[in-house]
User: Which sequence fits this backbone?
């Protein structure tokens, strides 16, 4: 009896080994078929809302070779006007403390700091830095149709980006900001725009930028700092913002540079979400264009810009207000696709 029971358990254990072997082989065969069927790629578990397009810019956005670096701040004391330069830098970094709604010196701007858009006091490659300012101004600017010197250009940002009033050209504050910019650009040859100056120029999409897709980007990657309503987060001391506003009454107005889609997209591609740099951008090109379309579709202060672009043929392709010399509508100038506009304007210029 015991013997036959032993034979029975042995049989059972043999059968279960056999079943397990068969199951393993079946799983292996099916697994390989699925694997090969998917082109040899492992299945993706992460769902990417905006998958990278073929247009994707390769990292880093520009090579380090010959990139502009600011002069050594530790040597600023050697300058005869060092006090002014130091005050100028302070005004760029903490504009609101001096010139914001509760400003110690004047109340002429909206609470943002210049540095919010000109990263690291205007010294960051592709962070809208001031490297080219001293070397390239005064110059004729098509927006005003006038020769602009550095103070005039600074006041453009006060009146538009900081939705405020111009700073008196003879004020100590204006003289200090100019001194700081001159010092930053002191090693740049006259007339030259150094590598890494200004903002990144993104490739155009083949479609219009999509505010709805941009809303998803905003919610996933921006809202945690800039807020549900784009209102930002005020600093506890009331001077400026920990996270500056992106729309609403305290943001830049519709005459500002960032209100042009290519400026906004270029700025965020290299600098946002916080921690992105030209070496390690985080957003794909599509995400950058789409979030620009979303943010610039929201309410913001309006500026009377009827005197801008006296020669309308000089309007940039993404200036969002007509009239234009080409036949494209305002909406396409605002959101794209931009390539047809560029091509049409090139052929006009060639005629
Ligand atoms: C909301 C964003 C924003 C803020 C805040 C801001 N700027 Fe700007 N600024 C821009 C943009 C965008 C440009 C144009 C960049 C371009 O077209 O490449 C610009 C350009 C400039 C330029 C010309 C740079 C060049 O090389 O031609 C100067 C000078 C300047 N800003 C000074 C200031 C000063 C001073 C402040 C503070 C009072 C300030 N900006 C605040 C967005 C901003
Ligand atoms: C971790 C917090 C954080 C996240 C996330 C973030 N930002 Fe910012 N953002 C900042 C800070 C801080 C500044 C100001 C930088 C400075 O002063 O040095 C800023 C500045 C800006 C500015 C220029 C100033 C202004 O208010 O107009 C824009 C535009 C901007 N961010 C857009 C975005 C977008 C779009 C995203 C999402 C793709 C994003 N940011 C995600 C923290 C953040």
Assistant:
């Amino acid at each position: 009896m015991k013997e036959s029971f032993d034979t029975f358990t042995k049989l059972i254990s043999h059968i279960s080994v056999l079943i397990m072997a068969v199951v393993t082989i079946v799983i292996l065969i099916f697994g390989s078929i699925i694997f090969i069927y998917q082109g040899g790629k492992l299945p993706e578990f992460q769902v990417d809302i905006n998958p990278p397009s073929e247009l994707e810019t390769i990292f880093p956005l520009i090579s380090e070779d010959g990139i502009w670096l600011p002069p050594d701040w530790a040597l600023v004391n050697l300058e005869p006007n060092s006090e002014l330069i130091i005050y100028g830098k302070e005004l760029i970094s903490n504009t609101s403390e001096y010139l914001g709604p509760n400003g110690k010196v004047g109340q002429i701007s909206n609470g943002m700091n210049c540095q919010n858009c000109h990263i690291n006091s205007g010294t960051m490659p592709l962070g809208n830095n001031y490297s080219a300012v001293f070397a390239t101004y005064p110059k004729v600017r098509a927006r005003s149709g006038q020769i602009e010197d550095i103070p005039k250009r600074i006041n453009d940002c006060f009146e538009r980006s900081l939705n405020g009033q111009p700073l008196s050209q003879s004020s100590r504050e204006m003289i200090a900001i100019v001194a700081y910019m001159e010092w930053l650009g002191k090693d740049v040859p006259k007339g030259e725009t150094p590598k890494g100056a200004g903002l990144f120029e993104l490739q155009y999409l083949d479609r219009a930028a999509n505010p709805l897709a941009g809303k998803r980007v905003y919610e996933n990657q921006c809202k945690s700092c800039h807020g549900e309503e784009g209102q930002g987060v005020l600093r506890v001391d009331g001077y400026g913002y920990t996270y500056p506003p992106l729309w609403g009454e305290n943001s830049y107005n519709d005459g500002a540079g960032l209100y042009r889609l290519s400026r906004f997209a270029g700025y965020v591609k290299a600098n946002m979400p916080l921690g992105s740099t030209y070496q390690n951008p985080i957003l794909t090109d599509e995400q950058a264009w789409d979030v620009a379309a979303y943010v610039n579709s929201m309410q913001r202060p309006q500026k009377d810009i009827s005197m801008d672009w006296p020669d309308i043929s000089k309007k940039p392709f993404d200036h969002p207000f007509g009239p234009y010399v080409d036949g494209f509508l305002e909406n396409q100038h605002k959101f794209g696709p931009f390539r047809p506009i560029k091509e049409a304007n090139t052929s006009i210029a060639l005629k």
In short: The longest strand covers residues 139-141. Residues 98 and 120 are 18 Å apart (CA to CA).
